[in-house]
Design goal:
Elements: E1 5-6, E2 16-20, E3 30-32, H1 35-43, E4 50-54, E5 60-69, E6 72-83, E7 95-101, H2 105-117
Antiparallel strand pairs: 1-4, 2-3, 2-4, 5-6, 6-7
Length: 120
């Protein structure tokens, strides 16, 4: 499952999430509940490349980090986090716990195919 990506605040379905298009480790993000909120957030970041996408609610978050060598997965670490609310932007939520998870081989194959097909 990949969250739907929107091309404009006017065509997005709300609530949605706005975040930097390249990794910022969770900083400079917001949950927008209307096109007006999204436009106001974007106006405070002129020239910034931002990503507007579907908000996927849930208290649980799986975070997988991949070590790639020439496009192939060399190692993977997966952490399951639990937060105190269904909709959140980290770090504006309280973490209730976390733990390591294994990654199923079939999921690693899907991620590897995705990484090989995605430049950068």
């Amino acid at each position: 499952f990949m969250p739907e990506r929107y091309t404009s605040a006017a065509t997005a379905r709300y609530p949605c999430i706005l975040k930097a298009a390249v990794g910022t480790w969770g900083s400079d993000m917001c949950i927008a509940r209307s096109s007006q909120e999204a436009e106001a957030f974007l106006a405070r970041r002129p020239g910034a490349e931002m990503l507007l996408q579907e908000l996927v609610p849930g208290r649980l978050e799986l975070s997988t980090t991949l070590l790639l060598v020439d496009g192939a997965i060399y190692d993977a670490v997966c952490t399951l986090y639990e937060y105190d609310r269904e909709e959140y932007v980290w770090p504006d939520a309280n973490e209730l716990g976390h733990g390591c998870q294994s990654v199923q081989e079939q999921h690693l194959k899907i991620m590897e195919a995705f990484c090989r097909a995605t430049p950068g």
